[in-house]
Amino acid sequence: MEMNTIIGIVAAVAIMLVGLIMILRKPKPVEPSLEADLHINPESQQPVIPRHVRDQLLQKEVVTSTERVEPSLNTEAIESEPVAKQAVDAVNVEAKTTEIEQTAKADEVVEAVSELEAAQKDETVVAEAETKEKAEESKAETELSLNPNIETVAIEEFDGESNILDVHLHEQQRYDDESALATAEQIIALNVYPNPRRALSGDKALKVLLKYGLRFGEMSCFHRYENTDEPSALMFSVLRMTDNGPAGFDLETLSGEQVQGLAFFLALPNSKAVTGYDMMTSIAGLIAREVDGKVYDENNLEFTPQLKEHWRHHVIDYRPNQATV
């Protein structure tokens, strides 16, 4: 079948369908219009209005009557409206003024009540404080007052000193009298100088001396004993260095002063000379490390290990008849 034949058949079918649709479609009824020609009754010469037209007219009249309201002119109402408005404004102003006055009066009442409550609270606090103070005073008086029912014992007069304190003081005094300072014939000295750029304050000097067990005592020196907890033999002592040489400590002014150096010295003869020398060199080295300084001997030579051994042998040789420790 050729293409032209197929196209023709399709076109014919389409034409048939269109015609069939036009035949089967119902025509839309035409509503009668109010503008159509009116029919005149020949006898009464009055127009004849069809029933469906009369219904449309009646519906339009009802709608118009419900929606449209003819305004009526009322001169008296128009004239009285400003007067009524002025009266309403006056009433509103008066009401607002009254409300403001009432609010102000209410604020004054609240403020007065607050002041009264604060005054009552202050009076209550003062009364409580006075009551508490009286209670404490009465309690203190009760505690201090003696109970008459308790038997008392007569205390004998104490004329002598405490035996324990007396023994302790006399024991330390005995060690001080027999110490090397009282019978010193030769001194072995070491000097500790801090870094010149870091001056040694009095507080720092006091702290390091106390840290290593030295106690302030005779000759305004700090002394190191064999035992720090009980009376014992003196090991060595410490003075402060000044421009004029070694000098004692003044504890009242030490905190506000600068200490140029510390002078350690061991007095010979000493019953425990070697022990005292070893302890002195050890503590001098520890303090020099804490104050960022160095240790020197009595000739201001840096205290090297060789010098340490030299002076140790000197201490040993000074007392050849005693056993070394």
UniProtKB/TrEMBL annotation:
Sorted UniProt keywords: Cell cycle, Cell division, Cell inner membrane, Cell membrane, Membrane, Transmembrane, Transmembrane helix
Q: Where in the cell is it found?
A: Cell inner membrane
Tagged with keyword Cell membrane: yes
Q: How does it sit in the membrane?
A: Single-pass type I membrane protein
Q: The organism sits in which domain of life?
A: Bacteria
Name the species this protein comes from: Acinetobacter proteolyticus
SMART domains tied to this protein: ZipA_C
Where it mainly occurs, coarsely classed, is membrane
- The ZipA C-terminal FtsZ-binding domain covers 184-315
Q: Which residues cross the membrane?
A: 6-24
Q: Which family does it belong to?
A: Belongs to the ZipA family.
SUPFAM superfamilies per the UniProt record, alphabetical:
Cell-division protein ZipA, C-terminal domain
One family from Pfam that matches here is ZipA_C
Function of the molecule: Essential cell division protein that stabilizes the FtsZ protofilaments by cross-linking them and that serves as a cytoplasmic membrane anchor for the Z ring. Also required for the recruitment to the septal ring of downstream cell division proteins.
The molecule here is called Cell division protein ZipA
